[in-house]
Automatic annotation (TrEMBL):
Name recorded for this polypeptide: DUF202 domain-containing protein
Biological classification of the source: Eukaryota, Fungi, Dikarya, Basidiomycota, Agaricomycotina
Family annotation (PANTHER family): VACUOLAR TRANSPORTER CHAPERONE 1-RELATED, VACUOLAR TRANSPORTER CHAPERONE 3 COMPLEX SUBUNIT 3-RELATED
Subcellular location: Endomembrane system
Record-linked InterPro entries: DUF202, VTC_Complex_Subunit
Annotated source species: Kwoniella bestiolae CBS 10118
Entry keyword annotation includes Transmembrane helix: yes
Amino acid sequence: MSQIADFFYHPFSNAALKLLPKRGVGLRAKSKRADRIPDDPQRPLLTDYHSINDPTIRVRVPKKVSTPVKVEAKVWFANERTFISYLSMGLLLSTIASGLLFGARDSPARWFAFAYALISAGVLVYGWAIFQKRLTMISARDAGSFDLLWGPMFICLALFVAILTNFIFRFREARKEIGVNPLSLQNAWYEAGIKSTWL
């Protein structure tokens, strides 16, 4: 049981983590002056404290003390919240895909259902992989960046292409059936007139 838990919380080995690109190299965006003080024994001395009695006072700059990085609980919870968000999005897409698949009357609708199911499976796998990667980075107290821009952009692009293709296909199909533009005002008045005669 402990091996399963160990695999879940530490899925990537140290050798695999070394293959990842190095993050946080150089100065950080919010670095302080104390972060740029060299650690050599020849540290600079401060001589100007605007003192008027004794201008020769020389104070040595304190050396940085390396302490272990404290990981707060909100970091773990943020990682789990992100994973749950990916899960909810993937389950919503799979629900739409199953509704299209079992309620479809023609084969193109089934193809679109398979496309949505493929996107939902990709979202679920991507969310799990990101969760495991960030969990390993948090456990190793990695100071690198946790921002990932390309994954969500690719998911949004895939959804946009699938929905736009579905709309264009249905629009052309409706235009072939009724012979006019289904989005025109004339067709809207015609449909409203037909439905009003049903009452």
